[in-house]
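EI: anyone free to look at a 240-residue chain?
SC: sure, send it
EI:
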Amino acid sequence: MRTRRLKGALGLTLALQTGACGFHAYSPPSGWSRASHVATAAPGEALLGAAVHGGGGVFGPELAGGELSFRRGLSQLVELDGDAGWIQITDQPRRPVFRGIMTGRIGIRGRFARDLPHLAWLASVGGGGHVGGGFLAPEVGLQAGWENPWRTPWVRASAFLSQPLGARPVDLAGESDAGPRVETPLATVGLRLGAGLSLRWVDFPVRLHLAVHMVHLARFDGPTDTVSHAGLGLEYRLGR
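SC: here you go
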């Protein structure tokens, strides 16, 4: 069976280095930056966003990417949100290979009560594709922060399941391997932890989001790894 050579950490199916065990093929989450303040959009209000992010070095592979997002208020407590993104593995492979992961996601986010603006819940489903096939990834979580008009610090935690679709074998052999080492992406569960700061100047319709995230991955057959990255995003309020 034909396989595709894949060297480096994330390796399109999130092939991460695990010390003596080498690289493993993970099924990735849908999206990476997740930068937003706690408050939901007002009913009928629409916001468009763009973000860039990157990471690597200490925790996980070298990567870079970006995404476009939207949010629209459905009620006083609930909003619809979604994004489409791209992430590129920047580690140099031994020979040219497609090293991108394309993702898309749609979800809802809401507050528990009108008089509790500092805590929100979130639920989404997303998916995408890469050299090792496609994937479907639902995610649920919580976000807390000190919501105010100008500076909102926040933290968030969520859990996801990533199920491969049409998984194809990939060759994860590195420079030190004597021959091919083939793996196929397997179902992966993950925990995403993030913290950030959202900034707004008076009534200016643009908000700046700064965020750092760590994503812990665990494959159903045992291997685990962690990816870290930081992001910068802008969000523009279109009005109601």
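EI: The mean pLDDT is 82.
SC: 👍
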